[in-house]
Amino acid sequence: MKTGLAHLYIPGPTNVPEAVRRAMAVPMQDHRAADFGILTAAVTEGMKPVLGTTKGHVALFPGSGTGCWEAAICNTLNSGDKVLMARHGHFSHLWAEMARKLQLDPVIVDVAWGAGVPVNEFARILGADRRGEIKAVFVTHNETATGVTSDVAAVRAALDSAFHDALLFVDGVSSIGSIPFRMDDWGVDMAVTGSQKGLMSPAGLGILGVSPKALQACETARMPRAFFDLKDMLRAHEAGSFPYTPPAPLLHGLRAALARMQEEGLDTVYARHRRLANGVRRAVAAWGLEICAEHPLLQSDTVTAIRTPAHVDAREVIRIAYDRYNCSLGSGLGPLAGKVFRIGHLGDLNEGMCLTAIALAELALVEAGAEITLGSGVAAAQAAFVRPVARQSAAA
Ligand code: PLP
Known about the structure:
This protein has 396 residues and is of the alpha/beta class. The protein folds into 2 domains: 7-13 and 266-385, Alpha-Beta Complex (Aspartate Aminotransferase, domain 1), CATH 3.90.1150; 18-263, Aspartate Aminotransferase, domain 2 (3-Layer(aba) Sandwich). 41% of the residues lie in helices and 16% in strands. α5 (119-128) packs parallel to α6 and α10 runs parallel beside α12 (351-367). The termini are far apart.
């Protein structure tokens, strides 16, 4: 039997704050009643600052991030369209697989799992695409499998300097709400996220930020869509509702989560994520282990993927943490299975929770055979977190 708190340090779903859980404890309600629109609008409008848009629209699809990957594609593209993508981790890999399944013609640039989006190669390909055959560029802003954050602004600059008109699709599933996301400034046409990571809510809602240009593309896109028809959804949102039954408790939860983020202040939310991520990275350095991200500039502030020593199977670390310490750590995905474990540090998190994650990972690492000094990671993170307390002068 597991006793005490369950420690959830996977990179999503993340810990749901008590206030959000309580906000979801509502009686079922009439989603076609006129006042349901207040809830719908609170969420769509509340998402806009988080997405960094004033010009874009927000669509809420029952489903998840994967659903919104599909919604972005099927509403704006045509079967056989060429699209440019990078594959540098499990999620960028899955999005590329989806593009194939939906009969797009993806130009895939493979780079190391641990690298960021290859902006220079993108710039070269876009510059060479004189006939404008590439209809969309896909970017995984934060590759959750490797803990790598890519430079979306640089991809926008590559598109602009090639005078290329392709749509820009960005997967922000593990970035939006935790690190700055500037949909308008970066000229993002489709911004994809889900409710269960930085937005501190249960899984079940896919959220799509849609630029006016993407909406325009819906007019000519002939790919079949039904459940994910964006125009149907936006038309329904405009009238305050959904084309089908929405998960109302989730909307209540997300509204409460957005209110919390607004109260904390988005810049403070981002600074907190940076501070906590820094602590985790210091701990990894103290253990003498390596981070999957190839360069410090790529290191994600929402998840850290940690390479275990060659003789230590990362799966064993994860198993020990879960079985003995009731602590969930993220696993290594695809080719990183057994080589990497991940600490998710996003959402409703504070220093104490991060220190717990580090302490339990440290225990599990040592029990799995890693030669690590107990307490070294915790001490390094504490040193990163410690802040001087302003003293009141005696005269005051
Ligand atoms: N994209 C990224 C970067 C993710 O981390 C995930 C899930 O972890 C997804 C897409 C898929 O999202 P979902 O599981 O909500 O369908």
